[in-house]
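Today's session is about reading a structure prediction critically. Students often jump straight to the picture, but the first step is always the sequence itself: look for stretches that repeat, for charged clusters, for runs of hydrophobic residues. Only then move on to the predicted structure, which in these notes is written as discrete structure tokens rather than atom positions. Here is the chain we will use throughout the hour.
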Amino acid sequence: MSHKKFIKKGVCLAVSSALLTMFSTNVLAAETAINKDNVEVIEVKGIRGSMIKAMDIKRTSSGVVDAIAAEDIGKFPDQNLAESMQRVSGVSIDRSGGEGQKITVRGFGPEFNNVLVNGRKLASDSEGRDFNFDILAAELVSSVDIFKTSNATLQSGGIGSTVNIQTAKPFALGEFKAFGSVKAKYDDNSGETSPQFSGLVSNVFDDGKFGVLASFSHQQTQGRSDEAQVDNWVANSGIPADEIIGSPTANTFFPQNYDHRVVFDERTRTGGTLVLQYKPTSNLEITADALYSAFEVETTSSSMGLWFNAADVENVQLDGNGTVIAFDEEKNGATDFHSRTFDRESDLTAFGIAAEWQVSDDLALNFDVATSTSNQKDPNGSANTMSNVGYWNNVSWDHTQGNDLPSLGNYDQPSTITQGGGTGYVSDHYLNPANVLGNVMLHSGSDIEDEVTQAKIDGQYTLEVGPLTNLSFGVLASSQTKKVKNFDNGSKACGPNDAICYNQELDIPDEYFTTFDAGSSFLSGLSGTVPTQWLQHDPAKMFAFLDQQIKAGGPGWDADANFTYDNESPAQAYIVEEDVIEVYASLDLEGEFGEMPWNANIGVRYSQTDVTVKGEQQTLISLRFQDPTAFSPTFEGLAPISESSDYDNLLPNVNFNLELTEDLLARFAYSQTITRPTLAQMTPAVAIGATRPGGVLKSSSGNSALKPFESDNIDLSLEWYYDEGSYASVGYFRKDVENFIVTSHRPVTYPGVTDPSTGNDSTAADAADEIAQFTLTLPDNGQDTTVDGFELAVQHNFGETGFGIMANLTVVDSDAELDVTDLNQSFALTGLSNSKNLVAYYEKYGIQLRLAYNQRDGFLQSLSQPSGGTEPTFVEDYHQFDFSGSYDFNEHLTVFFEGTNITGEETLKHGRYSNQFLLAQDTGPRYALGVRATF
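Below is the predicted structure for this chain, in token form.
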């Protein structure tokens, strides 16, 4: 048993030991009872009503809980659940395509937050445990509760938080209710307008014994993202010492490439819920519900990229940190024109049936069985397809001016060197298709299937024994199976007799190309110069053209070769089966210190986890040149792998609240929580990554023996509820985390595999080639981390004026921050950042206006970069303004408008140092105009 010692918390030890004699608990019973009561009593309408309800949930909860409530049925504060959650102190979000997708709470990223829907864990379409909030339409949700402190009734898994998303139910709404909304959403970057509509109907029958609710939502968005990106910076990449101007530095950092692209995406989200409730007697209530959501993203991009080779650069300038800020490349540079698709097609179905039985005046039992399934399919085996044509050229890089973006030169001048059998150039202008040399076709995609089934029994027994008021107890059994299968024909060899790439001189007819014009506004909000025109081609037509070349047996081609999408990368296929059994007991107590009322919740949860991981392992047998800049690995054989592990945890908690005055509330909370290892981190198979001349040889694997993160948590807070809908609070939190998973890097070799760039000939394999030295990257337990911080929040209604504000600030710190000067540091906490929110609103005379500001400080996003490696990724400071307004013509009809990122802020990322540019992304503002009817 891996439970922690409670030496420094003696009171917790005594109480928890006593509770171990009881084998019972209650999942979310106490908290959801409060929420349910509020929903039944308070009819929430409008911004102010929503904020009052959220404040009441916060005030009456046993621990530190923040809530977001719908302003009316089907009307959530923001267009997206994650966008609403970022308004809560301590919560930050990551975006995809300009839309909120994942959350970070108190510095702990998506994997550390346990997300439930109606108290149940849902399957997800990600490879890990993180939940993608963009799969659920905000119109289907009635409230979101964010539990920042734990109690025994909560399912384990959330060191950062437990989030419970609640959908509407007919008994809670009561009599007949219906709403419908239609709106048009405009994307400023793409200039496209898309339709969105949603609706809900709910009613009760037979004197309140039977209720039915059905809801539906359909949303389309056509967006455009303008981007510039460096895939990764390579440390100590082998820049010729005699080409460095001035004195060399201890380390050098070289940009591997520089791409400019425009990404178009069409997002379609369709979902709905169906809820049936039956109350045959006054003490029995049965609820059956179903949820469905389908999310499809069709994305295409056109880009121009430049590839650099450190060994061939000249006139290299370094700054004091060793970052390359200028260079010229007279040979082996490449300009590539990519046409690419990034499709995501996922769906979620969830079913559940629950029964609430009031056995007697003192005993209540809840029974719940639920199952959910999520699938992300690789559409036709081509979810991520890239077609690439290009030429060898000269290029220069200049980032000496301190602009947001580096400048390029000479990339429109093809090199005169011979590569791939010929120069292939008849023109000196890069937009002329006759310059094109070679053609590369790659595709990758994933099939992800996730299934979660759980059953639980919860109970609550009313006590009147001294200070004891309630005993909650229960048991939960959960089973999750996640299957991941990746497709990647890039893992095959690339060269003659292989239907993936063509690196011979190839005469591609001009009609296969057009000129793509990104427009004068392309990244115009950033300093620096960028190209706005480049070659564009249709990938499907190019694939067909290559297929013709294969069948014709052209130069370097095997006429019998087969061109196919269906190339699976078995080393990246795995199945994780996880079974969890949990039991818990929890006591509620109350009393008085003098004239100060107090209440407490003390409990313990025991969790047993069994994990089985299955996969397949390929054997690497050789590396050979794909082209002068890359190797192609060759594999043989396929062997099954199956490994298992198990662990158990004992998780105590104490929540104590003291009413210092009628309006002033002090809280103390202590708990132990866990987060289980990321599912993708547990697959033991080895995958071969980047393989490039000069020793850039990478491989990776998971670790099935990983143990969970374990955290000791302390919270202290003071909350002042000084008026209706108005409060101020300040809180301190501390989390001491053990078993933090770190990324380990170790040198490995694979039997018989040599490096063709060594030996007597650095451009071809020969007998003197040395054994290839790979860097194996894998996860491992071992790091301890402390995270602490402060949260300050104010919510104030200015009497009857109609004006109000909400403001909060989160300051968070850790002893696991990255020291950028230490290239050997293998661990730092990602996602850690300060944040602040300010929301101002006006609501009176049928008018609602709301302006929201969100700001997140820069943070370490990852210890790797888009193309892998050990260099970090930082996201720079980001802020965003959102605006919404509406006018009620009467109690039934409302016209509304919404604006997201109305000032068009860009996302910027950099590497180890601030001038190591990684990404500039402009998704632009988005606006919506619609009408809403309520009955």
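Discussion point for the tutorial: The chain is about 5% helix and 55% strand.
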